Description:
The complex is a heterodimer.
Chain A: H1 14-21, E1 28-30, H2 40-44, E2 55-62, E3 65-72, H3 83-99, E4 104-108, H4 118-137, E5 142-146, H5 154-160, E6 165-169, H6 179-186, H7 196-203, H8 205-210, E7 216-218, H9 222-230, H10 241-258, H11 264-270, H12 284-297
Parallel strand pairs in A: 3-4, 4-5, 5-6, 6-7
Antiparallel strand pairs in A: 1-2, 2-3
Chain B: H1 3-11, E1 16-21, E2 24-31, E3 34-41, E4 45-47, H2 49-65, E5 71-80, H3 84-89, H4 91-107, E6 112-121, H5 122-128, E7 134-137, E8 142-144, H6 148-155, H7 159-166, H8 176-181, H9 193-202, H10 210-216, H11 223-232
Parallel strand pairs in B: 3-5, 4-5, 5-6, 6-7, 6-8
Antiparallel strand pairs in B: 1-2, 2-3
Helix pairs in contact in B: 2-4, 4-5
Amino acid sequence: xxxxxxxxxxxxxxxxRVLAILDAxxxxxxxxxxxxxxxxxxxxxxxxxxxxxxxxxxEGAIGGQNIYIAAQxxxxxxxxxGEVHGAKLTGLLERAALRKPAAVVLLFDTGGxxxxxxxxxxxxxxxxxxxxxxxxxxxxxxxVVSAGANGVYxxxxxxxxxxDYIVITEEGRLSVSGPEVIESQKGVExxxxxxxxxxxxxxxxxxxxxxxxxxxxxxxxxQDIRNALMQYFNKPIPINLDTVMAEHQHLxxxxxxxGKAEDxxxxxxxxxxxxxxxxxxxxxxxxxxxxNQVRENG
Amino acid sequence: MDKINQICxxxxxxxxxxxxxxxxxxxxxxxxxxxxxxxxxxxxxxxxVDLAFELAGKVLDIVQxxxxxxxxxxxxxxxxxxxxxxxxxxxxxxxxxxSKCFELARDRGHRIISIIYNEAVSGGYLAxxxxxDQSFALSDAQIRVMAxxxxxxxxxxxxxxxQELCKSSSIFGPGVENYVxxxxxxxxxxxxxxxxxxxxxxxxxxxxxxxKLGHERGGRNMAHTIIESIIKAC
Lengths: 298, 234
């Protein structure tokens, strides 16, 4: 089964996403649902389980090149990470460190830790992070895609930025704390989670691309996402003193330049965008023209 | 004596020197194995972009100027800073950068050990404490993702049911003993912390064995087996 090229991944399931992004008939799944590896903890809470614990992992090809791939199922517990779910991701990354595919593609779509198994979920995310570093040290590029309805939040938001590249769509989001969490803990004055425009311009794909929290901005269309992924195959970024110092300098500049900004609109104005209020409504091509001008300058 | 000095005098009887700026603590200490670098937080710090960036800068200083010096992370965090500003500026980028600095240090031969002497919660714990090669906590430290009443509200599982399940499971309840059972913390007696930290400094393994420990201790029965089966799958 392949999704038409004009259709994106936002509205699709994890399995549809994997099958659409990979070359036809190349997917080989590890621990498929038929093996019934599911969460014992949800079961003991009397909750529904999923036979893949909400994440699909395996290998396949994109453009003929062998890659590893994982996709979180948005419809199961909001893509959240528990013991089994996390261990599948860690295993895939440790395997990649040994077998060295052309890349590991991570289709994240998650609120972060699954609260029903909170401690195990948090530790699992730390283990995924260590496995990510191991894969990177082995020279395997890790590419995160944020294009799903849940966004990429919590600990998975943090460790996504430990990967080599992030590909994001306009409707993708990347953050640590979500709007609802901030509002419930700090009040509606701090973050009005119902103000969707505020959510998008604070955590959404356009802003993340503009400030370089994501490296590639794509249309939510399968062929565009495949092309965006392929440009990074076999192009790992080493973690060494030079690259980490460069990142430190970049993040320091961001704090100096925009640390006092009240809103994304202030940052966009300071980036040199003449009409920042227009950014959310610009179509893909118009946005990219402006974004790539200011990203080069900044 | 405040908590940071209490823990330092307990772990470093041969002497230590720290300075505190805002929520950040840094310094050095003597051990029978030589000097170590100290870095960490006080006041149950919320780790946002500014603090993560300052901590990262301190780690990079150590990496550049004190090759292979062991690094002891002194953890006291209520979690990531929950604010619109920090998310606007990209807290994920700053917290992950801090992790990368520790990973760089590890890669260049710095032993990394964390000690949770007061509190460790979710995102702050992930970026600051869990990144260590070995991790210790005082027996009365507060460690959690979320307190049970809030967890009950969000998951819609009655509090009494969660409390009941906590008696037989380490999976979601707060507490040091749960994180020990799951393999994330060393199993220790507070009275021996100083000598245990010293032996952790001389331990050279940088392999992540938390899933294995969690399996052996009966707290996490599936993770280790799953990870191994995927690595070995044909």
